[in-house]
Amino acid sequence: MIEDIETIDEFLTRRTSDVEEAVRKAAAAEIMPRFRQLAAHEIDQKSGPHDLVTDADRKAEEYLTEALTALLPGSVVVGEEAVHADPATYDAIRGAAPVWIVDPVDGTRQFVHGDPGFCTLVALAVDGVVRASWTFAPARDEFATAIRGRGAVLDGVPLRSGSPEPGRDLDIATSHPDYTTDEQKRALLGLRVEGVAPRACGSAGLEYLAIARGELDGVAFSWEAAWDHAAGLLLVEEAGGAHLTLTGEPFRITGGNALPFTAARDEATARRVVALLAAGA
User: Fold this and answer.
1) What are φ and ψ of residue 103, in 5° steps?
2) Closest alpha carbon to 259 in 249, 268, 267, 269
3) Which pLDDT score, from 0 to 100, does residue 1 have?
4) pTM
5) Residue 124 near residue 98 (C-beta atoms within 8 A)
6) Which of 38-42, 51-55, 64-68, 111-115 is modeled with the greatest confidence?
7) What is the spatial distance between Cα 236 and Cα 101, in angstroms, rounded to a whole number?
8) Is the bond preceding residue 250 a cis peptide, omega within 30 degrees?
9) pLDDT at 176 over 90
10) Is 223 exposed, middle or buried (0-12, 13-18, 19+ CB in 10 A)?
11) Are 30 and 63 in contact (CB under 8 A)?
């Protein structure tokens, strides 16, 4: 088992490209052959009609679980579909072993409807800290990587989130109302003010990528599932952005966050969004 941060750094120096290759192969083998080719029996509901899972989700997660643990002996995987089958699996995020956090198809609803706005998300965390992340949008052939302290790149080009243009409305992607409590709805209503243009989010991973590349000013999300956030939050951080919970603290993948939370192109924007959310709450 890898036991210290120095060894993890060595692993990331040597094997980051191998992780990228595994992600690409999973998408090529299990996701893209099913894109716009899904049969009815390959689609199931989980919690409801808007919470879908497909054979692509399951098969890609199985592929990545085998490939990633082979690359890093002693590591474990917390994947969205495995946790759905056995919620206790999620506890590994708080454990001592290095953990791969996997969302095989982030944006399953878009995937099911033939929309290219989906991605595969992989993050590597140690002691509750995300050390590296991989975001792959296979239908767009875009691949973003972030390593803590070493920056973020999209297809080899450094990502810089920059800052919103002064005087322009902030573009903010938010949780869909169907997935928020009454208290969270009130907080999100705080964004319906002059100078802010909120909209419902699509794939969380792609929204984070949009922040990192300076195309979206921020997000305001109301759920904690680490597979949706771990990869993208590091991508935003390493591109120069920031993330804060409702109490003004950074989001923790281990849970217990005050919700909603935000990620934004810079810290000033993150603090502005949190202030508006707090005013709404």
Assistant:
1) -120, 105
2) 249
3) 42
4) 0.94
5) yes
6) 64-68
7) 17
8) no
9) no
10) middle
11) yes
Residues in the chain: 281
pLDDT at 48: 54
pLDDT at 37: 85
For the chain, the three-class secondary structure string (H helix, E strand, C coil) is CCCCHHHHHHHHHHHHHHHHHHHHHHHHHHHHHHCCCCCHHHEEEEEECCEEEEHHHHHHHHHHHHHHHHHCCCCEEEEHHHHHHCHHHHHHHHCCCCEEEEEEEECHHHHHCCCCCCEEEEEEEECCEEEEEEEEECCCCEEEEEECCCEEEECCEECCCCCCCCCCCEEEEECCHHHCCHHHHHHHHCCCCCCEEEEECCCHHHHHHHHHCCCCCEEEECCCCHHHHHHHHHHHHHCCCEEEECCCCCCCCCCCCCCCEEEECCHHHHHHHHHHHHHHC
Half-sphere exposure of residue 15, counting CA atoms within 13 Å on the CB side?
A: 18
Report residue 245 as tokens: 């919970």
